[in-house]
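REQUEST ID: PR-0412
SUBMITTED BY: lab tech R.K.
PRIORITY: routine
TASK: structure prediction, single protein chain
INPUT:
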Amino acid sequence: MRLAGDILLLIGAGFAFLGALGILRMPDVYNRIQAGTKAVTLGALAFLVGIGLLEPGWWAKLVCIGGFVLFTSPVSSSAIARALYISGVRPWRAPAAAGESGG
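STATUS: complete
OUTPUT:
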């Protein structure tokens, strides 16, 4: 179980890193919210399962934390995106490719 727990901790760290990289690399705030929410939520759940395998007595607490993360992360990112849209922040649009008509 130790090896599986360690592997899940590494997977969680990988997803957290990819989420942070997505936040840095995405072109607008809406893409950044999505990249951060999806990757970091999966990373947090992998962390929790890895910790649960390393510390079996903590499962009840970890399940509560996991449920809280699964419930609050999508709701909060949706609320932030809605507030941004209402305040006038428009989504990024890719520039037109050469040869395409702009009209």
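NOTES: The helical segments are 2-25, 29-54, 59-86.
REVIEWED BY: pending
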